[in-house]
Design brief:
heterodimer, A: alpha+beta, Ubiquitin-like (UB roll), DNA polymerase, domain 1, 5 helices, 32% helix, 18% strand, B: alpha+beta, Uridine Diphospho-n-acetylenolpyruvylglucosamine Reductase, domain 2, Uridine Diphospho-n-acetylenolpyruvylglucosamine Reductase, domain 3, Enolase-like, domain 1, 3 domains, five-stranded antiparallel β-sheet, four-stranded antiparallel β-sheet, 12 helices
């Protein structure tokens, strides 16, 4: 059974036909080639597939594409303005917060949601906010520093 | 995930009609964080999903004079940030904050948290256990570090919810809609032990929907706390958890409700511990006695006796904190 859905992804309006059992993650990666969003565990444990749904971080592997009807989605591809990186993206580079890079899109989107909501979080608040994103390179210190650098601006 | 049809009713009436028509082949979907995981694991393969997100009022938070009305679809995140829940119903806000991860709390709902399925690795794995229609509980002789120490058998799951012990400590009730109308049940009567029915964890029939959770305003001067022990600070389910509501007046324990999570197939009310303290002055000796009584009758399995000591320590911490000892 397919459903017609309309939604906004990275500011662009889409009208799509999706199967009921397709996840938002599969829609983004397989149908729209937005492969910046990563597929990790597929069960909501790792946070690699984090996207913003109506400005809040969610695991795209545990959201059905049909559930995103009428919603606004932001993926990592939606952050840069042309050639200019988002401040968080730039800070992650400047602080060496990217190692293998697999957790980075989810990590940056979670950080964006935090800073949009609270531009001056404390370090414990940052650590709590990114608790749902696993970095298996265990590079948390530099990730937290990168987010703090943007927060203090 | 296997194929299914997806339905988004606009009213409760429509949802109930769909459920009845589906005759057991449909599942209700709220936030989907537990359901989709179970479907990916192949534990459940419903032919239809009935998503409640577009039904008006189900995501409302409505305080009235003497109680708080929470729609079953209120997100766990909303509960953690709602000022009057934080202020008057702190145990619930604390418990909701301990669920899963920030991402899961954004999608996950209160109703879903109460109705989630157990995390037993045999049930979630490739084992046809009692709960899946087989003839044995593999935890009895298998790896049982995370299983029940009390009220277990014939199946030894633990109830995974953080919000359930908190809501029980506050004496919450639930509204259930079905083909014959609505009924209200005490949350205490909502959960079912494996002895009652090994295939499910609560009284909801396949044609019924949990629509609302009602929490009475704790009496003036009552204090509450939720403590959870786990191996990892994020995501993990409770090894043991304690929800405590305590009212002390003039040094005397006027009211106590102590509910334990992560140790039994249902959120476990530690009535024997409550009896030790109720009507008595809160003193260290009695607190210790209450801790010892809390799990009397427990029968740990080969690898989970540590839960007894852990739970007692949590209860003691909760009692000492709330009584300012």
């Amino acid at each position: 059974m397919t459903h017609q859905i309309e939604l906004i992804i990275n500011g662009e309006h889409y009208e799509l036909m999706v199967k009921a059992n397709k996840t938002l993650l599969e829609l983004l990666r397989e149908d729209l080639d937005l492969t910046g969003t990563k597929m990790g565990c597929g069960t909501g444990d790792c946070g690699a597939c984090t996207v913003l749904l109506d400005n809040r971080p969610v695991n795209a592997c545990l959201v059905l594409a049909v559930e995103a009807r009428g919603k606004e989605i932001v993926t990592i591809e939606g952050l840069a303005q042309g050639e200019t990186l988002h401040p968080l993206q730039q800070a992650f580079i400047d602080h060496g917060a990217v190692q293998c890079g697999f957790c980075t899109p989810g990590m940056i989107l979670t950080a964006k949601a935090l800073l949009d909501n609270n531009p001056n979080p404390t370090e414990p608040m940052i650590r709590r906010a990114i608790a749902g994103n696993i970095c298996r390179c265990t590079g948390y210190t530099k990730i937290v520093k990168a987010i703090m650098a943007v927060a203090s601006r | 995930m296997k194929g299914f049809t997806f339905h988004k009713p606009r009213s409760l009436k429509e949802a109930l009609a769909m459920l009845k028509e589906a005759d057991g082949k449909a599942k209700i979907m709220a936030g989907g964080t537990d359901l989709l995981g179970a479907m990916k694991d192949g534990i459940m393969q419903p032919e239809r999903l009935i998503n409640l997100q577009e039904i008006p009022d189900l995501a409302n938070i409505r305080p009235d004079n003497d109680r708080l009305h929470l729609g079953a679809l209120v997100s766990l995140h909303e509960i953690t940030v709602h000022p009057s829940i934080q202020k008057r119903f702190g145990i619930l806000a604390q418990a909701a904050q301990e669920v899963g991860s920030p991402q899961l709390r954004n999608m996950g709902t209160l109703g879903g948290n109460l109705c989630q399925r157990p995390r037993c690795w045999y049930y979630r794995g490739d084992f046809v256990c009692l709960k899946r229609g087989g003839d044995q509980c593999f935890a009895v002789t298998g790896q049982n570090k995370y299983h029940a120490v009390i009220e277990g058998g014939p199946c030894f799951i633990v109830h995974p919810s953080d919000t359930a012990p908190a809501l029980l400590a506050m004496d919450a009730s639930v509204r259930i809609a079905g083909p014959d109308g609505e009924k209200i049940a005490a949350l205490e009567k909502f959960f079912m032990t494996p002895r009652d029915n090994v295939t499910r964890e609560n009284i909801l029939e396949p044609d019924q929907i949990l629509t609302e959770i009602m929490v009475p305003l704790p009496r003036e001067g009552s204090r509450g706390i939720y403590l959870k022990a786990r191996e990892r600070r994020c995501w993990d389910f409770a090894l043991a958890s304690v929800a405590l509501l305590l009212n002390i007046d003039d040094g005397i324990c006027q009211e106590i409700r102590l509910v334990l999570g992560g140790i039994a197939p249902i959120p476990f009310r530690a009535s024997k511990a409550e009896e030790v303290l109720k009507g008595k002055p809160i003193e260290i000796e009695l607190i210790d006695q209450a801790c010892r009584m809390a799990l009397s009758g427990a029968r740990p399995l080969a690898s989970n006796a540590y839960k007894l000591e852990l739970t007692q320590a949590l209860i003691k911490q909760a009692l000492l904190t709330l009584s300012n000892k």
